[in-house]
Design goal:
This protein folds into two domains: about 80 residues, Arc Repressor Mutant, subunit A; about 170 residues, Beta-Lactamase (2-Layer Sandwich), CATH 3.30.450.40. The chain is about 45% helix and about 20% strand. A hairpin with a 5-residue loop joins strand 7 and strand 8.
Length: about 260
Protein backbone atom coordinates (compact mmCIF):
# COMPACT_ATOMS: atom_id res chain seq x y z
CA UNK A 1 0.00 0.00 0.00
CA UNK A 2 2.86 2.38 0.86
CA UNK A 3 4.47 1.80 -2.54
CA UNK A 4 1.13 2.35 -4.30
CA UNK A 5 0.60 5.59 -2.38
CA UNK A 6 4.07 6.81 -3.30
CA UNK A 7 3.52 5.98 -6.97
CA UNK A 8 0.18 7.79 -6.85
CA UNK A 9 1.95 11.08 -6.12
CA UNK A 10 4.44 10.75 -8.99
CA UNK A 11 3.67 13.18 -11.82
CA UNK A 12 4.35 11.61 -15.18
CA UNK A 13 5.02 14.91 -16.90
CA UNK A 14 7.58 15.96 -14.29
CA UNK A 15 9.26 12.57 -14.44
CA UNK A 16 9.49 12.77 -18.23
CA UNK A 17 10.91 16.30 -18.03
CA UNK A 18 13.63 15.09 -15.67
CA UNK A 19 14.38 12.11 -17.90
CA UNK A 20 14.68 14.51 -20.80
CA UNK A 21 17.23 16.64 -18.96
CA UNK A 22 19.21 13.52 -18.08
CA UNK A 23 19.35 12.60 -21.78
CA UNK A 24 21.90 15.37 -22.30
CA UNK A 25 25.40 14.08 -21.55
CA UNK A 26 29.00 15.01 -22.26
CA UNK A 27 28.88 12.57 -25.16
CA UNK A 28 25.60 14.03 -26.49
CA UNK A 29 25.42 17.66 -25.29
CA UNK A 30 23.13 18.71 -28.15
CA UNK A 31 20.13 16.70 -29.36
CA UNK A 32 17.32 16.95 -31.86
CA UNK A 33 13.67 16.43 -30.98
CA UNK A 34 13.56 13.16 -32.92
CA UNK A 35 16.63 11.87 -31.09
CA UNK A 36 15.13 12.67 -27.71
CA UNK A 37 11.79 11.12 -28.62
CA UNK A 38 13.49 7.92 -29.74
CA UNK A 39 15.82 7.58 -26.74
CA UNK A 40 13.07 8.33 -24.21
CA UNK A 41 10.35 6.31 -25.90
CA UNK A 42 8.03 9.32 -26.03
CA UNK A 43 5.99 10.85 -28.81
CA UNK A 44 7.49 13.74 -30.74
CA UNK A 45 4.64 16.06 -29.73
CA UNK A 46 5.17 15.22 -26.05
CA UNK A 47 8.88 15.96 -26.31
CA UNK A 48 8.16 19.26 -28.06
CA UNK A 49 5.85 20.36 -25.24
CA UNK A 50 8.38 19.37 -22.61
CA UNK A 51 11.16 21.22 -24.40
CA UNK A 52 9.04 24.35 -24.80
CA UNK A 53 8.27 24.37 -21.08
CA UNK A 54 11.89 23.77 -20.10
CA UNK A 55 13.09 26.41 -22.55
CA UNK A 56 10.73 29.00 -21.08
CA UNK A 57 12.33 28.43 -17.67
CA UNK A 58 15.90 28.45 -18.97
CA UNK A 59 16.64 24.75 -18.50
CA UNK A 60 17.26 24.12 -22.20
CA UNK A 61 18.28 26.30 -25.14
CA UNK A 62 17.62 25.82 -28.86
CA UNK A 63 20.18 26.54 -31.54
CA UNK A 64 18.27 28.43 -34.25
CA UNK A 65 20.50 27.10 -37.03
CA UNK A 66 20.95 23.41 -36.16
CA UNK A 67 17.54 23.14 -34.44
CA UNK A 68 19.27 21.16 -31.70
CA UNK A 69 18.66 21.64 -27.99
CA UNK A 70 21.23 21.84 -25.20
CA UNK A 71 21.09 22.45 -21.45
CA UNK A 72 20.44 26.03 -20.33
CA UNK A 73 21.93 28.27 -17.68
CA UNK A 74 19.26 27.37 -15.10
CA UNK A 75 20.89 23.94 -14.84
CA UNK A 76 24.23 25.59 -14.11
CA UNK A 77 22.63 27.68 -11.36
CA UNK A 78 21.24 24.55 -9.69
CA UNK A 79 24.62 22.86 -9.97
CA UNK A 80 26.25 25.82 -8.21
CA UNK A 81 23.72 25.60 -5.38
CA UNK A 82 24.22 21.85 -4.96
CA UNK A 83 27.99 22.19 -4.84
CA UNK A 84 27.81 25.02 -2.30
CA UNK A 85 25.66 22.95 0.06
CA UNK A 86 27.77 19.79 -0.05
CA UNK A 87 29.91 19.88 3.07
CA UNK A 88 32.27 17.28 1.66
CA UNK A 89 33.08 19.51 -1.32
CA UNK A 90 33.79 22.53 0.87
CA UNK A 91 35.95 20.58 3.28
CA UNK A 92 37.76 18.48 0.69
CA UNK A 93 38.64 21.26 -1.76
CA UNK A 94 41.89 22.43 -0.12
CA UNK A 95 42.99 18.84 0.43
CA UNK A 96 42.27 17.92 -3.19
CA UNK A 97 44.25 20.94 -4.37
CA UNK A 98 47.14 19.88 -2.14
CA UNK A 99 46.94 16.33 -3.45
CA UNK A 100 47.07 17.48 -7.06
CA UNK A 101 50.00 19.78 -6.26
CA UNK A 102 51.86 16.93 -4.53
CA UNK A 103 51.24 14.26 -7.15
CA UNK A 104 50.84 16.27 -10.33
CA UNK A 105 47.70 14.26 -11.11
CA UNK A 106 43.94 14.78 -11.07
CA UNK A 107 42.22 14.16 -7.71
CA UNK A 108 38.59 13.27 -6.98
CA UNK A 109 35.98 12.75 -4.30
CA UNK A 110 33.50 9.97 -5.07
CA UNK A 111 30.36 8.52 -3.52
CA UNK A 112 28.27 5.43 -4.24
CA UNK A 113 25.00 5.92 -6.10
CA UNK A 114 23.18 2.62 -6.51
CA UNK A 115 25.50 0.27 -8.37
CA UNK A 116 27.78 3.05 -9.60
CA UNK A 117 30.45 5.33 -8.23
CA UNK A 118 29.83 9.04 -8.85
CA UNK A 119 32.46 11.79 -8.79
CA UNK A 120 31.26 14.86 -6.90
CA UNK A 121 34.43 16.96 -6.63
CA UNK A 122 37.61 17.21 -8.67
CA UNK A 123 40.84 19.15 -9.08
CA UNK A 124 42.53 18.78 -12.44
CA UNK A 125 46.25 18.46 -13.04
CA UNK A 126 48.21 20.60 -15.53
CA UNK A 127 48.49 17.66 -17.96
CA UNK A 128 45.08 15.93 -17.81
CA UNK A 129 44.14 12.87 -19.84
CA UNK A 130 40.75 11.56 -20.91
CA UNK A 131 39.81 9.44 -17.90
CA UNK A 132 36.01 9.55 -17.80
CA UNK A 133 35.85 11.01 -14.30
CA UNK A 134 34.24 14.41 -14.67
CA UNK A 135 31.93 15.66 -11.91
CA UNK A 136 28.64 13.81 -12.09
CA UNK A 137 30.12 10.93 -14.06
CA UNK A 138 28.89 7.45 -13.09
CA UNK A 139 31.41 4.63 -13.40
CA UNK A 140 31.29 0.93 -12.49
CA UNK A 141 32.49 0.01 -9.01
CA UNK A 142 34.35 -3.28 -9.52
CA UNK A 143 37.03 -1.85 -11.81
CA UNK A 144 37.64 1.62 -10.35
CA UNK A 145 39.69 2.26 -7.23
CA UNK A 146 37.05 4.49 -5.61
CA UNK A 147 34.35 1.96 -6.40
CA UNK A 148 36.30 -0.89 -4.85
CA UNK A 149 37.06 1.15 -1.74
CA UNK A 150 33.37 1.93 -1.24
CA UNK A 151 32.44 -1.73 -1.77
CA UNK A 152 35.20 -2.93 0.56
CA UNK A 153 33.84 -0.95 3.51
CA UNK A 154 30.17 -1.61 2.80
CA UNK A 155 28.08 -2.83 5.75
CA UNK A 156 24.69 -3.06 4.06
CA UNK A 157 25.03 -6.04 1.76
CA UNK A 158 25.75 -4.05 -1.38
CA UNK A 159 28.59 -6.34 -2.40
CA UNK A 160 26.24 -9.32 -2.70
CA UNK A 161 23.72 -7.29 -4.67
CA UNK A 162 26.44 -5.88 -6.90
CA UNK A 163 27.77 -9.35 -7.68
CA UNK A 164 24.28 -10.61 -8.50
CA UNK A 165 24.09 -8.33 -11.51
CA UNK A 166 27.35 -9.66 -12.94
CA UNK A 167 30.80 -8.15 -13.48
CA UNK A 168 31.20 -6.56 -16.89
CA UNK A 169 34.61 -6.64 -18.54
CA UNK A 170 36.04 -3.33 -19.77
CA UNK A 171 39.68 -4.28 -20.38
CA UNK A 172 41.82 -7.41 -20.21
CA UNK A 173 42.60 -6.53 -16.59
CA UNK A 174 39.00 -6.16 -15.38
CA UNK A 175 38.18 -8.61 -12.60
CA UNK A 176 35.07 -10.54 -13.66
CA UNK A 177 35.25 -13.41 -11.17
CA UNK A 178 33.15 -12.88 -8.02
CA UNK A 179 35.49 -14.85 -5.75
CA UNK A 180 38.52 -12.92 -6.93
CA UNK A 181 36.74 -9.59 -6.43
CA UNK A 182 35.81 -10.56 -2.86
CA UNK A 183 39.47 -11.37 -2.19
CA UNK A 184 40.46 -8.00 -3.62
CA UNK A 185 37.92 -6.17 -1.47
CA UNK A 186 39.20 -7.97 1.62
CA UNK A 187 42.72 -6.80 0.81
CA UNK A 188 41.48 -3.24 0.24
CA UNK A 189 39.79 -3.25 3.65
CA UNK A 190 42.91 -4.57 5.36
CA UNK A 191 45.33 -2.17 3.64
CA UNK A 192 43.14 0.93 3.62
CA UNK A 193 43.56 1.73 -0.07
CA UNK A 194 43.16 0.34 -3.59
CA UNK A 195 45.22 0.58 -6.76
CA UNK A 196 43.43 0.01 -10.05
CA UNK A 197 45.82 -0.48 -12.97
CA UNK A 198 44.08 -0.39 -16.33
CA UNK A 199 40.99 -2.23 -15.10
CA UNK A 200 38.50 0.29 -16.47
CA UNK A 201 40.54 2.15 -19.08
CA UNK A 202 43.76 0.76 -20.51
CA UNK A 203 46.80 2.81 -19.61
CA UNK A 204 45.08 4.61 -16.73
CA UNK A 205 45.82 4.00 -13.05
CA UNK A 206 43.85 5.22 -10.04
CA UNK A 207 44.66 5.04 -6.34
CA UNK A 208 41.95 5.56 -3.73
CA UNK A 209 41.44 5.57 0.04
CA UNK A 210 38.33 5.72 2.27
CA UNK A 211 36.92 8.88 3.86
CA UNK A 212 35.00 8.39 7.11
CA UNK A 213 32.20 10.56 8.45
CA UNK A 214 31.67 11.51 12.10
CA UNK A 215 30.15 8.08 12.77
CA UNK A 216 33.19 6.32 11.38
CA UNK A 217 31.28 5.15 8.31
CA UNK A 218 33.00 5.13 4.92
CA UNK A 219 30.69 7.11 2.67
CA UNK A 220 33.22 8.80 0.37
CA UNK A 221 36.50 7.93 -1.31
CA UNK A 222 39.35 10.18 -2.40
CA UNK A 223 41.44 9.20 -5.39
CA UNK A 224 44.24 10.25 -7.69
CA UNK A 225 44.12 9.16 -11.33
CA UNK A 226 46.50 9.50 -14.23
CA UNK A 227 48.43 7.70 -16.97
CA UNK A 228 49.95 4.44 -15.75
CA UNK A 229 53.40 5.39 -17.02
CA UNK A 230 53.37 8.49 -14.78
CA UNK A 231 51.69 6.88 -11.78
CA UNK A 232 53.79 3.70 -11.67
CA UNK A 233 57.06 5.55 -11.17
CA UNK A 234 55.94 7.01 -7.83
CA UNK A 235 53.13 4.64 -6.81
CA UNK A 236 54.21 4.08 -3.19
CA UNK A 237 54.53 7.80 -2.58
CA UNK A 238 51.13 8.50 -4.12
CA UNK A 239 49.53 5.80 -1.95
CA UNK A 240 50.88 7.52 1.17
CA UNK A 241 49.64 10.93 0.01
CA UNK A 242 46.18 9.63 -0.90
CA UNK A 243 45.80 7.93 2.50
CA UNK A 244 46.97 11.11 4.22
CA UNK A 245 44.42 13.11 2.23
CA UNK A 246 41.66 10.67 3.21
CA UNK A 247 42.64 11.00 6.88
CA UNK A 248 42.71 14.80 6.74
CA UNK A 249 39.34 15.07 4.97
CA UNK A 250 37.81 12.62 7.44
CA UNK A 251 38.92 14.83 10.32
CA UNK A 252 37.54 17.94 8.59
CA UNK A 253 34.06 16.38 8.35
CA UNK A 254 34.03 15.29 11.99
CA UNK A 255 35.70 11.90 12.21
CA UNK A 256 38.00 11.16 15.09
CA UNK A 257 39.58 7.78 15.74
CA UNK A 258 38.52 6.25 19.05
CA UNK A 259 41.32 4.63 21.02
Amino acid sequence: MAVETKQHYLLGSVKNALRLLQAFTLDTPERKVTELASSLGLGKSTVCRLLSTLESEGFVMKDPESKRYKLGLSVLQLNTIVNSTLEINRESQPILERLTDETGETAHIAIRDGFSVVYINRTECPSPVEILSHIGRQNPMHCTSSGKVLLAYDRNGWVDRYLEKGLKSYTKKTVTDAKKLRETLKSVHENGYDVSNGEFIEGVTSISAPIRNYLGQVVYAVSVVGPTNRMKASESGIIYKVKKAAHDISERIGYWKRT
